[in-house]
Amino acid sequence: VNADPQSEPARLEVGLGARSYDILVGAGLLADAGTYLSGVLAAPRVVVVTDGNVAPHHLAPLEAALDAAAIQHAAIVLEAGEQTKDFSHLQDLVGKLLGQGVDRGTTLVALGGGVVGDITGFAAAIVLRGIDFVQIPTTLLAQVDSSVGGKTGINAENGKNLVGAFHQPKLVIADTETLNTLAPRELRAGYAEVVKYGLIGDRVFFDWLAENASRILNGDADARRHAVVTSCLAKADVVSEDEHEHGRRALLNLGHTFGHALEAETGFGDELLHGEAVAIGMVLAFELSARLGLCPEADAVAVRGHLQDLGLPVGLGGLKHDAWSAEILLSHMASDKKVRGGKPTFILARGIGAAFSTDDVDTGAVRALLEDALAA
Ligand SMILES: NC(=O)c1ccc[n+]([C@@H]2O[C@H](COP(=O)([O-])OP(=O)(O)OC[C@H]3O[C@@H](n4cnc5c(N)ncnc54)[C@H](O)[C@@H]3O)[C@@H](O)[C@H]2O)c1
Ligand SMILES: [Zn+2]
Known about the structure:
Layout: E1 2-4, E2 10-14, E3 21-26, H1 33-38, E4 45-51, H2 55-68, E5 72-78, H3 87-99, E6 107-112, H4 114-126, E7 132-137, H5 140-146, E8 151-156, E9 159-166, E10 171-175, H6 184-201, H7 203-217, H8 221-241, H9 256-266, H10 274-291, H11 297-309, H12 326-334, E11 346-349, E12 355-358, H13 363-375
Helix pairs in contact: 5-6, 5-8, 6-7, 6-8, 6-10, 7-8, 9-10, 9-12, 10-11, 10-13, 12-13
This protein binds nicotinamide-adenine-dinucleotide and zinc ion.
Zinc ion (ZN) binds near residues 256, 274 and 278.
């Protein structure tokens, strides 16, 4: 990854040969989006795709920026929420795009969170066998995770994110000021993915977060910029080495094997947001690592303490889990799409900043951990 974190805005290049692209990070970038876009558009025509929560705050400023750069634009406003990431909404979106006469020179602009980014990116991957798209992520989760890496897609009846394509954006514009309108709970959930990068491979970043997390949550522009830049660097570094997720990219699933089991039980809904599930999952992964003698107990305690201090869930206590059992959770883990050859892969840690991937974990230890978590 080629990076110029000090420039204004910060500029990181995701190195993927001919498909390389920049991630721009800074406060107030939306106002200059036309200028940044002009550098990557095949033709001065875009269709902005956004959702009903984002549009009232951020669509008009983006449209003004496009006008200022003489870029033609149309907008499609999707219904907000995860249920939008399905076949029928994709069909509707593709129909509207074709109805508006998109051609190979048109670029789609995804203005929103991971839902808008995923469905817009997938539409861009399949319309006319593939047109360009740009990400303007407006949630913390999307700025540090979903907008980078080129995974696009929708959910199927059989499960989340089972239909999609790798399609890299031409540019990512992460304007940290757009986070000012995001619900605090969504911001906190996204923060769990920020912590994840520290836990995977960067103890210095984790220590910085332990000091500065409240600045990030309270809107401090410099702290947000540092958090987003460091997270994107970490993700871009993994993606440019392992675009299609064979090896190192698996580390990004820290906390996700446990997390997905909890999301499956809570129905992927409002009771437990994805980032909240990941927070609990990371605590469980560190606890398991400590129990297996791989990781100092003090590190597991530090992870739990930090997330708890910020108001993220760190156990199953707040969830309606009367009907759950360790067996049910284990069966969700075994059917996770990342499972290869029957055994779930776990991301464990030798300490904060030292995660590794293994499919050789004693099921008895996992069952005991889950039983204790359910009983707590
Ligand atoms: N492609 C990937 O690599 C990848 C990685 C992680 C997650 N994802 C996907 O991302 C999705 C989750 O993303 P998310 O957490 O951003 O969810 P989201 O897109 O649903 O956004 C969360 C909520 O915040 C609202 N919102 C977004 N930006 C706002 C703003 N600036 N102000 C006010 N409201 C705003 C949205 O309308 C929504 O109600 C999931 O579908 C997940 O599968 C994809
Ligand atoms: Zn995640």
